[in-house]
Write a structure and sequence with these properties.
CATH class of chain A: Alpha Beta
Order of helices and strands of chain B: HHHH
CATH class of chain B: Mainly Alpha
CATH topology of chain B: Non-ribosomal Peptide Synthetase Peptidyl Carrier Protein, Chain A
Order of helices and strands of chain A: EEEEHEHEHEHEEEEEEEHEHHHEEE
Strand content of chain B: under 5%
Largest interface: A-B, 20 and 16 residues
Helix content of chain A: 25-40%
Shape of chain B: globular
CATH superfamily of chain B: ACP-like
Distance between the termini of chain B: 14 Å
Radius of gyration of chain A: 20 Å
Number of strands of chain B: 0
CATH architecture of chain A: 3-Layer(aba) Sandwich
CATH topology of chain A: Peroxisomal Thiolase, Chain A, domain 1
Radius of gyration of chain B: 11 Å
Distance between the termini of chain A: 32 Å
Strand order of the largest sheet of chain A: 1-2-10-17-16-15
Oligomer: heterodimer
Chain lengths: 382, 78
């Protein structure tokens, strides 16, 4: 990481007289920074809701409704020996190989995850060592989930625009399947796993990238793992499972989701966030080539698209049915899994990326993809 | 906001519900197809049709279709 922190002339934030000042939320734009390539790694083991009729008390009608309406189908999950760091490492190795970036050129590694290998040290440091990066390289984790990929991109852009970095390696991945209780219908059939690696670098003449970041911490308990942190350490008591009013079984060490509240949050905040970012960037909705939302489930995706009156062909939605909700890896997974051929065949593409979830936290980015060295989805091999 | 229209939207929102089966006094939670998915789809329908956000507590406090109608109506007038 270079020591020259002189602010480049090209940086710009909302305080700029050329851009509207929106005091209600942080919005910013960056110039001369671009995404060079991205790779997503998924575990090979596949689960299918058709094999889980027992979870729904043998109610085939309910299972069919969930498949049809929510879009639950298949998901890829890790085995007990594989972590998000493993998936991210394999994605990073492929990315480094395909972009031909030298390890010495990477000034920082950011790891976005809520399923790190250890409570200490952070995954970024562990992966820094495993990838053999140089000592002149910052490494830090970001503890965010479904909004985390966009937050990670924003942080990488910020680090480059500040003058501190030339190239940032962003790793975003989670293994939420290991946090859900198998008998919790509200979450067990939803979540899959994935890890991603994205290279972001300074690039003179790169078009502007726009970001907005938002939080509603009053909803922190709507999607959470109550036990396992300092507030409620794991104990014999926290490992005990209980059945809730809806018949779902979990312990405080498992992921809890208030589905109705998360749904309300998604359909209320997401369309607003996207609309406001487009206004800020002065870009017409129709000028965006693809809207890549966090792959929560097809129902939420369809709803957001409907409320924004988007052309469904511009909104990837198949990823969640193939791989499940992959938390911080879902946006790169949708790009690599559904759009790589299209992106390879065009000079550039205007992409609106938007993640929302645990926090409650949401973030949107409007970025142009141009000349990607790699955009690939790979299977994890142990 | 008319009760008949509200019932139609409710019917349309819940999968596998035959048309005409609902009355104002129907205990909707006793319907065979009433589950957490139906909560989502009805919430969605009310938001789309009336721009009203229903919360978990609203579903908990209403027992019949007309009681849910009254909750939506009260939110409309706020």
């Amino acid at each position: 990481m270079c020591n020259d922190f002189v602010t480049p002339e090209n940086w710009a934030f909302t305080s700029s007289t050329h851009w509207p000042s929106l005091k209600s939320m942080p919005k910013c734009r960056f110039l001369d920074v671009r995404i060079t390539g991205l790779v997503t790694c998924v575990p090979p083991h596949e689960k299918c809701i058709d094999d889980e009729l027992e979870l729904f008390g043998g109610n085939m009608q309910q299972l069919k409704r969930l498949k049809k309406t929510i879009g639950l189908h298949k998901r890829r999950v890790v085995d007990a020996d594989t972590t998000a760091a493993d998936l991210c490492e394999q994605a990073a190795r492929r990315l480094i190989e395909e972009t031909a970036v030298e390890l010495a050129q990477i000034d920082a590694v950011i790891c976005v995850t809520q399923t790190p290998d250890y409570s200490q040290p952070c995954n970024a440091a562990v992966l820094h060592g495993r990838l053999g990066l140089l000592k002149d390289c910052a490494a830090l984790d970001v503890n965010l989930g479904c909004s985390g990929y966009v937050y990670g991109l924003w942080l990488a852009h910020t680090m480059i625009a500040s003058g501190g970095c030339e190239r940032v390696l962003l790793l975003a991945g989670d293994t939420i399947s290991r946090l859900v209780h198998a008998k919790d219908r509200a979450v067990a059939p939803l979540f899959g796993d994935g890890g991603s690696a994205t290279l972001i670098e300074r690039s003179a003449g790169a078009p502007a990238a726009f970001f907005s970041l938002q939080t509603d911490g009053s909803g922190y308990d709507k999607l959470m793992v109550p036990a396992g942190g300092a507030r409620q350490p794991c104990s014999a008591a926290t490992s005990l499972v209980a059945e809730d009013a809806a018949g779902n079984i979990r312990s405080p060490e498992n992921l809890f989701m208030d589905g109705a509240e998360i749904f309300n949050f998604s359909i209320t905040e997401e369309p607003k966030s996207v609309t406001e970012l487009l206004e800020y960037a002065s870009v017409e909705a129709g000028a965006v080539d693809f809207y890549v939302f966090h792959q929560a489930n097809r129902y939420i995706l369809g709803n957001i698209a409907k409320r924004l009156k988007l052309d469904p062909a511009k909104v990837p939605m198949e990823t969640v049915e193939r791989f499940g909700n992959q938390s911080s890896a879902s946006i790169p997974s949708a790009i690599c899994g559904e759009l790589s051929a299209t992106l390879a065949g065009c000079d550039s593409a205007q992409m609106l990326l938007s993640g929302f979830g645990v926090g409650l936290s949401w973030a949107s980015a409007l970025v142009e993809f141009r000349d990607l060295s790699v955009c690939e989805l790979i299977d994890y091999t142990s | 906001m008319e009760l008949d229209t509200f019932i139609k939207h409710f019917e349309d929102a819940v999968e596998d519900l035959e048309s005409g089966i609902l009355t104002p006094e129907t205990s909707f939670k006793d319907l065979k197809s009433w589950d957490s998915l139906a909560v989502l789809t009805v919430t969605d329908a009310m938001d789309m049709e009336y721009a009203v956000t229903l919360r978990k507590a609203d579903f908990e406090s209403a027992a019949t279709v007309v009681q849910l109608f009254e909750i939506v109506q009260s939110k409309l007038t706020k």
